[in-house]
Amino acid sequence: MKKCPKCGYVRQALDDEFSNASPNACPRCFTSYDEDATRPELKPGCAQEFTTPSEQPSRGPSYRRPYLMIAMTAVVAMLATLYVTSRYNMGIQKSAFTTDTTKNAYSNVQTPEDDDAPQTVSSIAGRIGPSVVSIIVYNAQREPIGRASGFFINAAGYVITNYHALRGSVFSEVKTASGKTYPVNNVIAEDRTNDLVMVSTGTPSTEVRPLKLSHTSPQVGEKIVVIGNPMGLEQTVSDGIVSALREGRDGRRMIQITAPISPGSSGSPVVNMRGEVIGVAFMQLVGGQNLNFCIPGEILSKLGSMPAYASADFASQSPDRLYCYLDETKKVRFIKNPDTVDPRYVLLTRDDGTPDRDRFEHWVFEILGRNPYRIDPQAEAEAEREKLPEYFSKIFPGYEIEQLGRFAPEARAYWGSWVANRLQHAYDQAARAKQEGIGLHRQLMSYFDQYVSH
Question: pLDDT tens-digit profile of 436-448?
């Protein structure tokens, strides 16, 4: 057995099998067994031994492997640190970008990119709502006679609405989304064929939020949003799609949409999902299902090139004359400004051209035969009771109702049953006539309101 000249360890048989040291080196301190013959003299008092570079002992692969593994581990750790650091910095930049984008989406001042990007119905409503106004029309006595919708088209406070909404008016004003009202001063331009008018208002610039026009036709199936004031319910939002692009019998182009349009919605802006005006609401087909129409925005863009004139000239034009009548199928029909007046026609407008709802309602009661709201079923049954003596004489000829007590029980029972059925029938008939008459009256009055509002 070999003994280490340095540490004195005696080499064992198992060291040859399991030790990493070479057979010529000590398994404990890796000192060569032949070192005494070649090592230099040690300096007195030196606690550590050194070898010259040329005499550096050969420690074999087992000596170099740990340092190589340590070096490789350090390199891998350094690369991993650099990768994690770079990913962290990229995450910070991405987070900052996301925060800025979110902030811009809810900011009042939007970038051009935000304007061009598709929006939600909620965001569109928030953007264009302040641009929509309610229009109130008054007669000579400053009594409100009609309502419509409109929207700002430029920074000067010009408002677009339907021509029929202001026709024949003596005075009108706009009410902004903030609730403030301003007068309509002048009519800047009109297009009677397409039912459009542009008016100037006294709205200050701080209240004006003009909308952007779309100069191209929308696509069928494209999603749209409408904001208006149906039945005086201001800032009402509805959405739908473009159903079709149509052309009327008179050659007028129209856009058919599914978004609901009710009385008071005339003049509402119809916008796409970029907030651009693609049309102006103006008509609903009564009795249809989601059959609503608007005037294309590309026609609207040409309105500003038409000549201007004073609002007094607008009001002094020949007023409309609206008539109603029953056709051959007993359906109520409306006709405006006919060339010839048929004897069946009933005039529904006043001298200034404003619709007279009371006149139409009176005509409805005439065709119904009476005012259904005044029908009293109980009173009808009592009136029938007063006719019982006459009925008794017909059922029992030669006898008066006072002689009933002398009749056989079977005859008295028959009469009692007949009277009960007769009075119940009179009551039920009156109740049914009241219900049906009120329903028909409401339906006809709604037809009138819808026709007038559009």
Answer: 999 999 989 988 8
Q: Under 8 Å CB-to-CB from 283, ≥6 apart: which residues?
A: 254, 261, 292, 293, 454
From residue 286, how far is each of 95, 264, 364, 449 by CA, in Å?
53, 15, 18, 11
CB-neighbour burial class of residue 162 (10 A; exposed 0-12, middle 13-18, buried 19+): buried
Per-residue pLDDT tens over the stretch 50-103: 344 444 444 444 444 555 666 666 666 777 666 656 555 555 444 443 334 333
Predicted model pTM: 0.45
**Beta strands per DSSP E along 192-329:** 196-201, 212-213, 223-228, 236-247, 253-257, 269-272, 276-284, 292-296, 322-326
Band the pLDDT of 188: cuts 50, 70, 90: confident
In terms of C-beta distances under 8 Å and separation of at least 24 residues, what long-range contacts does 216-219 make, across chains too? Answer: 216/298, 217/245, 217/296, 217/298, 218/242, 218/245, 218/255, 218/272, 218/278, 218/279
Residues in the chain: 454
Q: Report whether 357 contacts 347 (CB < 8 A).
A: no
DSSP state of 289: S
Res. 307: pLDDT tops 60: no
Amino acid identity, residue 159?
V
Q: Quick one: CA torsion of 409, 412, 414, 420, rounded to 10 degrees?
A: -140
Instruction: Work out the widest C-alpha separation in the chain, in whole angstroms.
Output: 169
How many whole angstroms separate alpha carbon 351 and alpha carbon 359?
13
Distance CA 168, CA 187 (A): 13
Show the tokens assigned to 77: 């750790």
Which tokens sit at 127?
């953007």
Number of H helices, E strands in the chain: 12, 16
CA dihedral sign, ordered 363, 366, 367, 373: positive
Of residues 3 and 270, more confidence is placed in 270
pLDDT, average across residues 199-216: 87
CA-wise closest residue to 453 among 199, 227, 183, 195: 195
Rounded distance, CA 400 to CA 43, Å?
163
